[in-house]
């Protein structure tokens, strides 16, 4: 067997691509080839469309794809989290049924975790799943569900035992979103977009074999999904623009990207658009103002130091060394950056910051920053939850006693608001 | 550019950390800082000799180890962490740095081996009463026969150094000269410093005999870049130590029947402190690697690292005292020693505001 290293992997991948890549194939047809060969998700098990490649060597494969503009597997959106969760906890039936169609992009997924009554406290879910006859019957309400209106499948967290303690009463299911018991309504945000949905579930059904892991083990599976979500952070949404080349595969990919990325159009703005700060300051002349210069430099310092911190963490990972605390800070620092950037953009724009849409700078982009950054410190784990995670898991500070884990969940006090 | 520490560097760091904890405990810093000199020759020579710390970045041909800024900055980070009271920064970063940048081979051969061996304590005298480290503000003059007239101030270990590298206006522009610490016509006065662990002196030059070292045009700016990067690493070490000590204290301190570390107000502060310190470390490490790699953006990177470390260290020190509560405001508690070092480090070679403006000069162009 050839030794696995950067050079051998690169050579093998390049040879395969040269023999097989054809932009005139249909997107799904090409991705079937990727699945058969294992080059699409080479870090997946060889039994399931991968090649057992160490994660550290995946960038080499990505470089080879990029070199000749070969299209990879469908990667953006919740489907990535679905794949990771199924690989970790799913049955062979789940892997057989779902993984291939995730890779090819034929199936779209959504995540049904958050509820109106449980945001930061995801394990406080009260959507119920009850076994009636030989089916699970699900009732409840989920919220902040990206792409629910398009999704074929949902990753569902539901309560199956009200006498058990909080975490022990949860189970994890894969639910068919295209059924009458599921009703999806868009949720309008403060920035005017409607990227998320509310999902009302009324007597929806789940076949028993679509339970993931055991009954009562739903929290462990949820943790896997959330871990991948945090690790991926905005990676889930950073998909290339696609090539402008005319061949069929590119054309189909452009359409796919447009659909998948639609809900994420404002995401660059919610991160603060640090890239626009200096060009805007030059354009408005504010670059000459010493007060503005200080604020810009503070922002750039934070942004650069955060970038280098991420690089430190990545380098440690690539070298197979244990990651230090630097690996847990990205989410929190990105909130600080977004807030600071919105402030600096306001300072730079002056009175123009009063305006929006085509009356405002950059056809509304700057205005969109100002009304989108509050999402950064809430979505995917609030700053407060991030600080709890950092202080408890990284700094080993004591956990605070909570009032909901020492008794049957049915006896835990519920929300008095919302 | 990839930046991370090799396993050899990590080993060097952990050996050094153990060594300094053992040989330069804070009790020793407290004793030395009460002395006018701030250090003792026999003690410093012994400490230095064991690990050859002053030799780290001096080339082998001049009796050194020939390492880069990566290794030098590890030493500085550990010294900042341990708050070692010693003439190390002045000797290795400033004086040796100036000699390496501006000196001829002959002058290097004459001056560097003594520094590498730990025999020569040296420093740089560049700022004056105006308190600016910009070369342009230099008023001290050097005659065609290398006689110096004028004054210098804020000179690190200036009252005790054997050798002083002086920035002066010479006949052909800004230049470095070397002066013997005991030269005739040189008056040295120890300044009263808020940070007692960092001794500063004011020097008066009255027709002092000096030796030309080399041109400071360009090289002085470069030296200040190196100093900013090195100090950033020292500051990162001090900030991390403060953060860890405050965290340990919060785990031990009981109020209302439980450790104060269990209160969310403490936990969130601790998380923010970790973030501040880790960002400062990343910037300092990146800047050290950039110096070794000859990165062309080094002026911006150095200022960024210094501004980042300044804010992080001061903020961490403020939080650390707050977490300690009343005891943190006492002389007997060690926190104030790092708090004062944070302040002195912020101001030295330009504060965070200065360095941010420096960054903008490059970006606004």
Give your account of this protein's structure:
The complex is a heterodimer of chains A (418) and B (365). Chain A is an alpha+beta fold. Chain A has 3 domains: 6-76 and 237-260, no CATH class; 107-232, Butyryl-CoA Dehydrogenase, subunit A, domain 2; 266-380, Up-down Bundle (Butyryl-CoA Dehydrogenase, subunit A, domain 3). Chain A is 41% helix and 12% strand. Chain A has 13 helices and 8 strands. In chain A, helix 4 crosses helix 6. The radius of gyration of chain A is 23 Å and the shape is globular. In chain A, 39% of the residues are buried. By secondary structure, chain B is α+β, with helices and mostly antiparallel strands. Chain B folds into 3 domains: 7-117, Orthogonal Bundle (Butyryl-Coa Dehydrogenase, subunit A, domain 1), CATH 1.10.540.10; 122-215, Butyryl-CoA Dehydrogenase, subunit A, domain 2 (Beta Barrel); 219-363, Butyryl-CoA Dehydrogenase, subunit A, domain 3 (Up-down Bundle), CATH 1.20.140.10. Chain B has 11 helices and 10 strands. Chain B has a 4-stranded mixed β-sheet, covered by helices on one side. Chain B has a 4-stranded antiparallel β-sheet with strand order 2-3-7-6, with no helix packed on it. A two-stranded antiparallel ribbon of chain B has the order 9-10. The longest helix of chain B has 34 residues, at 219-252. The two termini of chain B are 24 Å apart. Classes of the chains: A alpha+beta (418), B alpha+beta (365).
Number of H- or I-type helical stretches of chain A: 13
| The top level CATH class name of the largest domain in chain A | Mainly Beta
Provide the gyration radius of chain B in Å. 20 Å
Decide which structural class fits the backbone of chain A.
alpha+beta
